[in-house]
Input
Amino acid sequence: MSARAIKGLRWWMVGLFTMGTVLNYLTRAALSVAAPTITKDVGVTTEQYGWITTFFQIGLMMSPICGYVLDIIGLKVGFALFAAAWSVITMAHGLANNWQTFAWLRGFMGFAESSAHPSGMKLASEWFPAKERGLAGGLYNVGASVGSMVAAPLIALAILVYNWRLAFVIAGAAGVVFVILWLIFFHSPDRHPALSDAERTKIAEGKEAHLVSDGRRPSMSKVLRQRNFWGIAIPRFLADPTWGTLALWVPLYLTMTRGFDLKQIAMFAWLPFLAADAGSMFGPVVVLWLQKRGVGLINARRGAFTLGALLMTPMMFVGFVDSPYAAIALLCLGGFAHQTLSVTVITMAADLFRHNEVATVAGLAGTCGNLGVAIFTFLIGTWVTTVGYDPFFIALGVLDLFGAIVLWTLVRERTGPASSPALATST
Output
């Protein structure tokens, strides 16, 4: 197999995984799109909806378990199991008749869906050399944005044509189809039937030698004792509430504060996620641009994160503009900025830790991120009826600046045999 064919195979693998992230985030966002209808049909209050979203975030905080399982049993089987679980749970949403049932379903669903980022980073570390890893991470993160983006029109259309219960069944069934495709077509490099031993060696070339798996089981306690872990986990704790707000609360915000109906939500609620798609690829491009000008990999990542944090600041004014379309424009800028910095810090798990630790590290960092979302969404659900949305948008505009400070202060670049000029253009 030629070098070009191997490269194409790499991108086919990440493209297949991106299909999974699209469905992962579509099913995540389905509840927020259906929320205005469900709250009337089932009688769910704003505070109860806040508890439902909190249970989901608690489930997402179990991502270290997912990461550890993926590192032990492998990406192919592990991700298939988690994807099958979230698909079945999504369909079960159609049977819910009270907020407590929704809360428990969302909790279990959050656990299964928290496998997305650990799986994506494990795939990137297995299949991609350093110079392509950032772009691979950006591509599968596009799937997250696309899934959230298409949820608004597709779920709204299903509700208008059928009902909200069948909308969940359809979304879950699509996930089952993906699991079948994943099991048929995905293989790790060491087991892909189309690769020879020489070609597997070629794939291994370009990876950082000091990050190659040492054959040991990952140790969570060892990871938690490293400053580099906290250097990427704390920024995620501060950054991820933006995504949680866009995915879980914007439809209700547009309904309650801006007076949008379901059709208007279908028309406009997906736009921040379209902007986020561009941000997913913008972050790696910024890293490449900086490295071509002599900036090292880790500093380039920190620079891209800082740029994203600065672009987030206008989100403070979402609640202060009179025009709902100006508010949507600011939300779009927030989605773009968030993915610019988010994909950057997520990718750093593969830059700083061994390949057999990547999924575990990504899972633990994901827990910190989802803890931030859980706290933030709980506060929204508890206080929004008394203080409104404005204070929360202000907070989202400044939290990432503190994240950038932490990233520059704590993270230290690992050195080893691969720290060479050959890596100076890695993205």
